[in-house]
Amino acid sequence: MFMMMMMMKTGHFALLLTGVSMAIQIHQSPPALLKEAGGDVQLVCSHQQSDFRVMLWYQQPPGSAAMKLVGYGYVEFRDDAVEEAFRGHFSLAGELSGDKHKNASLFIRNLRAPEHTATYFCAASKPQFIKHPPAADKNLQPAEAREDLSFSSFNERI
Question: Which of 31, 108, 123, 134 has the fewest CB atoms in 10 Å of its CB?
Fold first, then answer.
């Protein structure tokens, strides 16, 4: 795990990247950047594991242990990939099919504080096929993370 910090300036977003991997190596970029409120951000997450065809993005607000699902792609990113609470400012794109490396970009447009101030986690997983899936809460608590789910995080602060 590594951590890179930046000084925070009034009216700007300071972004902090930390990397954590539990099953595969995930790369997230840029390592750090500084943006003004109203600006746009693209966070890119990638890995080389061809059978991990599901990629997810989570948001963890400051002071909260819970992570909110921003959106996910399952082999592809469909029009409804972003959860309704995040639509408007957030969008997802990337390449999850085939046997080559996988990537997922999270775009945040027109940055706002404090609603966009958070740590953003990228996760990757193998597709899970369940005949009758049980009802599930999309918002994971850190202790509930599965072993076959790999995370990388991006911290955004003002």
Answer: 134
